[in-house]
Amino acid sequence: MTITSNKAQSNPVALFVSDVHLQASLPRTTEAFLRFLDRHAIAAQQLYVLGDLFEYWAGDDDLDTPYHRKIVEAIRVVHDKGVAVYWVGGNRDFLIGSRFAEAAGMTILDEPFVTQIAEQRVVLLHGDAQCTDDKAYMDFRRMVRAQEWQHQFLAMPLAQRKTIIDSMRTGSRDAQRNKAYEIMDVNSAAIDAVFESTQASLMIHGHTHRPASHMHVVGGTQRIRHVLPDWDCDAEPSRGGWIGLYPDGSAQRFGVDGQPL
After folding, report:
1. Is 53 exposed, middle or buried (0-12, 13-18, 19+ CB in 10 A)?
2. Which H or E run contains 86?
């Protein structure tokens, strides 16, 4: 299933991006994202970041490192140009809080978030909560999303938190090697349940790194689900991109070079 816009020459109402996985060790990915903000995001009315903008986020007290400050300031420019910037936390950066949001000019949204864009009822989420076949991950997710766990974790020194996160990332990579490809994707029933509970006609999410568009029939009605790509411009071939939603309700997928796909 493809997505196209009949008004590709007009400015989009909203842009959607996720899974950029920014980190200082990936300079080309960083520069590609900064170009996206400077050349494309400022032309939209709304920008939605649907999680995992950073490879990891240890807490808002890490906000003032030079690398993080550069990203925050670039997002703030988009906000100051009149673009409404919204955020849904991912599995890597769900600890982003009010200090980061205020500095970047972002509004943190609950997940799933339902809104009206271009006369469509749209539901937005990161996507990891719908990977219900991955039982081990769902147990881990419940643990780290618990308020008590987060309070205890954020009370630790920043350096200690980063060490723990590095260990978690290594464990996650090792675990993924032994998991079936299918269980790391979203569960169709979980997706249909979101459509049914929100009555949305369009869903956009990331997390799975499997960009595609899917049709679901829920309650006898056709619904569309768009999956965003992950970014890595330091690899060959480079990958990344975003989706734009236009005033006529049509959508267009863009590659990391800004060209329509």
Report:
1. buried
2. strand 84-87
pLDDT of amino acid 130: 98
Check: CB of residue 74 under 8 Å from CB of residue 83.
no
Question: How many CA atoms lie within 13 Å of 134's alpha carbon, on the beta-carbon side?
Answer: 23
For residue 2, the model assigns a pLDDT of 43
Predicted local distance difference test score (pLDDT) of residue 1? 42
Annotated binding site for Mn(2+): 19, 21, 52, 91, 126, 207, 209
> End-to-end alpha-carbon separation of the chain, Å?
12
State the binding site: 19, 21, 52, 91-92, 126, 134, 172, 176, 179, 207, 209
Binding-site members for substrate are: 91-92, 134, 172, 176, 179, 207
> Does residue 181 carry a pLDDT above 80?
no
| Domains of the chain with CATH codes | 14-126+201-255 (3.60.21.10)
pLDDT of residue 4: 54
